[in-house]
Design goal:
Largest sheet of chain A: 8 strands, mixed
Number of helices of chain B: 6
Strand order of the largest sheet of chain A: 7-6-5-8-9-11-10-12
Radius of gyration of chain B: 15 Å
Oligomer: heterodimer
Shape of chain A: elongated
Structural class of chain B: mainly alpha
Largest interface: A-B, 56 and 52 residues
Helix content of chain B: over 70%
Order of helices and strands of chain B: HHHHHH
Largest sheet of chain B: none
Strand content of chain A: 15-25%
Distance between the termini of chain B: 29 Å
Number of strands of chain A: 12
Chain lengths: 475, 180
């Protein structure tokens, strides 16, 4: 029983710890990679220590690991938000990585080499047991158990390993009761931690956590600050009043207004559903697709008084957008909106590639438009340039726009453009309070003439995005 | 354990790290980011590992498994590009993952049986190699993915070809650790 339990804990710990670390330090593929490496380094540490660790040492290590893991769902965000507020984001990352190396997997990986010891012939059976435990642990995670329930399984398995591995009934009783108390208190602690995080890491004044959830993809928080409501994905503001609200106007409302024909629109990314709402109000029949059903559900419920959408106002599809487009070659849209995060992760980076943009272009009506955020402030930004370079390869006609209220360059592309640069400026002047910059097609192509495009085989935008968000290097 | 033995463990662990990252990427790129594919990847790697761990030790079987896993990787890398979002690329990817996981399991149990330094040392050196392979693969993902594919396939072939000259008369180590 011990080895399967160890295998199960190792699997769930990796799954949970990587998610928690990503939701605390700025989430990106780099953080995911570093998190996995630090956790797996714990295995090496265990194999090195296994023959040398005394029973007392094992007990101490188990005790510290127990405390570390029990508080992990809360402590990582507390520590990182406090240190970020002090301007020590890199220090926060290093502390987390060190902690995860020492106290996530090491203790549980010790038992296999210790039990096998001088009996190598027993290794295959024992190792297979540990692997089988890991395999079974995929069930609670893969079946979509709520995070709270998943924590109960995880905590229970940790206590089981302590019981079977250390063999001290008094320790088991303490561990069991502590784990139960922590599990019962977790919802309140989680809400408090979310508010703490928003206050210290994001600079909100009086945040109040309204709802939080974990999906298989990310942590989602809905936070109220005064009369404003914000959507956070993995601890990053995805929607809030102000700039992020204006973002939805540029990504959806403006391109929608440019089109004479408003039959069908596709919005990739649900978020707060504001982009969808803009287009529904303009008369489009909107299909919104999101990989994450929890984002869509929370967006529908918690931003209803903002977006005003009712069930049935639009069609919601859950799934990968690239896959969805590939499997529906006959669908056509007048407008396709990429309302997605920047290329912080592989899955979003793939949406910005020419291969994906070409699939989307092929779903456009002849007079249709695709709207995307280049994530660039100007035409010197390497990330934006690589995305624009790819878009130039795909779309016969392009135009870029940047409003001072948002500060990002948005791209509208299609087989033909329904507006001239002057016409677009005139339209935007009606609602953009600040300066407006228009980037005509020729300007975009000239700027990206010697720029390598962001492609599936060479994810330039992912690389440059990660380079710009190395913890401690850029806020 | 000799230095050759340590190197063997490390390099094969390195190959497994490369392979896991590479196959994971090709599945993501060719099928989408759905969580189902992520869990299927883990399950097949682990399940393959269980099967490989419990299989009897045999040089011929081990080398065949490694060669199959390498060829399957190459096949997956090509099919993922030529035929994304089809059943063909899906089956190719999942089959490759299962083969690689099976080799990892087989290899580790075979090497552990041969090791004079004990199971802990075997696991230690192999895991270090895996970590290095994982890190290198992650870096190559950011810069140029064909380089990752080329390295994984070339190294896999070299390991298979070098097998008969390795001490212990079995193919070198791998791992079927539960590492997504």
């Amino acid at each position: 029983m011990l080895l399967p339990a160890c295998g199960a804990v190792l699997m769930l710990t990796q799954y949970i710890a990587v998610r928690e670390m990503g939701a605390a330090v700025f989430p990106s593929e780099l953080i995911t990679i570093l998190s996995v490496i630090s956790i797996l380094s714990g295995h090496s540490l265990a194999y090195r220590l296994a023959p040398r660790l005394t029973t007392v040492g094992l007990t101490w290590w188990g005790g510290i690991t127990f405390i570390y893991l029990l508080t992990l769902p809360i402590s990582i965000r507390l520590i990182t938000s406090f240190l970020i507020a002090q301007g020590v984001e890199l220090g926060a990352l290093l502390i987390i990585l060190l902690g995860s190396t020492l106290f996530t997997s090491t203790f549980f990986a010790l038992f296999l080499p210790r039990l096998t010891g001088d009996q190598p012939a027993s290794f295959p059976r024992r190792y297979a047991l540990e692997l089988a435990g890991a395999l079974l642990a995929l069930l609670p995670a893969g079946l979509g158990l709520s995070w709270h329930l998943l924590l109960s399984v995880w905590f229970g398995l940790i206590v089981l390993v302590i019981h079977l591995g250390l063999g001290r009934p008094w320790l088991t009783r303490i561990a069991g009761s502590t784990a139960l108390a922590m599990w019962l208190a977790w919802p309140h602690l989680d809400a408090w931690t979310t508010a703490f995080y928003c206050r210290h890491a994001l600079g909100m004044e009086r945040p109040r956590a309204l709802a939080s959830a974990y999906s298989p993809y990310q942590r989602i928080d809905i936070v109220q600050e005064g009369t404003d409501r914000a959507l956070l994905l993995d601890g990053i503001l995805f929607y809030a009043e102000g700039m992020l609200h204006r973002f939805n106007s540029y990504i959806a409302e403006v391109p929608g207004r440019l089109l004479a024909q408003r039959r069908k629109a596709l919005v990739i990314g649900a978020g707060s559903l504001h982009a969808t709402a803009y287009l529904v109000r303009q008369g489009f029949a909107v299909v919104t697709i999101d990989l994450d059903p929890v984002v869509a559900e929370l967006g529908m419920r918690w931003f209803k008084e903002w977006h005003g959408l009712q069930p049935g106002d639009f069609e919601l599809r859950i799934g990968d957008a690239r896959r969805w487009l590939a499997l529906r070659p006959d669908e056509r849209f007048d407008l396709i909106v990429l309302d997605i995060p920047a290329a912080y992760h592989l899955q979003t980076a793939l949406l910005y590639t020419p291969e994906s943009l070409a699939m989307a272009r092929d779903r456009l009506e002849p007079t249709g438009l695709l709207a995307l955020n280049t994530t660039a402030n100007d035409l010197t930004d390497p990330t934006g340039l690589s995305i624009i370079s790819g878009a130039c390869q795909v779309f016969p006609a392009l135009i870029g726009v940047k409003g001072e209220s948002v500060g990002l360059i948005f791209l509208y592309g299609g087989y033909q453009l329904p507006v001239t640069p002057e016409g677009l400026r005139t339209l935007l002047k009606q609602e953009e309070p600040g300066d407006i910059e228009i980037y005509p097609d020729a300007t975009l192509r000239q700027a990206t003439r010697q720029v390598a495009p962001h492609r599936t085989d060479r994810l330039v935008a992912l690389l440059t995005t990660l380079q710009s968000r190395i913890p401690g290097r850029n806020p | 354990m000799s230095h050759g033995g340590y190197l063997d463990l490390y390099v094969t662990g390195f190959w497994l790290g490369l392979t896991q990252v590479g196959l994971g990427f090709h599945l993501l790129a060719s099928q989408g980011a759905g969580a189902l594919f992520y869990f299927a990847t883990l399950a097949l790697w682990l399940g393959g590992g269980v099967a490989g761990t419990l299989h009897r030790r045999s040089t011929t079987f081990g080398r065949g498994l490694l060669l199959s896993a390498t060829v399957a990787y190459l096949h997956t890398a090509l099919v993922a590009r030529w035929s994304p979002f089809t059943g063909w690329s899906l089956i190719a990817g999942l089959f490759s993952i299962a083969l690689a996981g099976a080799f990892a399991g087989w290899f580790l149990q075979d090497r552990a049986a041969l090791s004079s330094s004990g199971v802990a040392a075997t696991l230690f050196h192999e895991n270090n190699g895996f970590l290095a392979g994982y890190a290198v693969a992650a870096m190559l993902l950011l810069f140029w993915i064909p380089a990752l594919d080329g390295l994984a396939c070339t190294l896999g072939l070299l390991l298979a070809l070098a097998a008969p000259t390795r001490p212990g008369s079995t193919l070198s180590e791998g791992t079927s650790h539960h590492r997504p």
